[in-house]
Hints:
Elements: E1 7-10, H1 24-35, E2 42-43, H2 57-69, E3 79-80, H3 86-98, E4 103-106, H4 117-131, E5 137-142, H5 144-147, H6 153-163, E6 167-172, H7 177-187, E7 195-198, H8 204-209, E8 214-217, H9 220-233, H10 239-251, H11 256-268, H12 285-304
Parallel strand pairs: 1-2, 1-8, 3-4, 4-5, 5-6, 6-7
Helix pairs in contact: 2-3, 3-4, 4-6, 6-7, 9-10, 10-12
Amino acid sequence: MSKAKRGIYAAAISPFRADGSLDAAKLIGYCRYLLTEGGCDGVAPTGTTGEGNSISFRERLELPAAFAEAGFSAETVIIGTGSCATQDAVDLTRAAVAAGLPNVLVLPPFYYKAPSDEGLYAYFSRLIEEVGDDRLRVYLYHFPQMSMTPIPVDVVRRLKAAYGPMVAGLKDSSGDLAQSLAFVEATGGVAEDFDVYPSSEAMLFDGLAGGCAGVISGSTNAFGAYARQAMAEGSPDSPAFALVKAARAVASKYPLMAAMKQLEAWRSGDESWTRMAPPLVGLSEDQKTALRADIDGLEARAEAG
């Protein structure tokens, strides 16, 4: 079994059918694109950008087997399995491990607010012990703005000490590089085989220099190739990385999931990509016009080098 490789990940958007169900086959095809032309080292489906908590339990339960049957390597996929109900998280995680995809991204239980450190530890501890498989690799998911349930550094340190390699890393969507580096300091980061991933490619080089493993980002759905070029050039002062930061700034102007879906609809010529799971909605006409102008500007800049 393979721990997820380090590098650039896309928190993959999810395609929905007209009836609101997940189109797993289209998602798999899209993730293949992200791993090739899309410039990414890995994909993280059914996370926040993938509207994972708006996808039914049954569909999420079936998804790992579909990825495995499609031939995805375990080292390129981190599947979101977090849930408010511990047993749901256990069942989703077991399905991933059973399919040969042991790398999972796990939100804390986010309905009851201000849980104690002991309660958060109990949730993740029960998940790991109930799954009961040494192949499991858990990536903790710290996203306090969305979940309203931060994962304290001390809880991360305690879990890592108790479960070793099964607590493989952490995605930090706080948007605060100092927070990511605090997780690195507490665990040893990549030097101690604990992989912290900030959520913005604009932090890529600072994060790597500080002991992070790469990024897991929503905007790399559209701009992963820019990040790949910046990595190839290898300098935070390169024109390629300036373009990465400009693209991230564009993404931050719009509702991220809706913008990434609109960009994929334009790229693929498939307008069904703009479907969102309620309560989220697509971009307004004014937003589409502004986004199109912003993207034209980025593409002109990329062509000019």
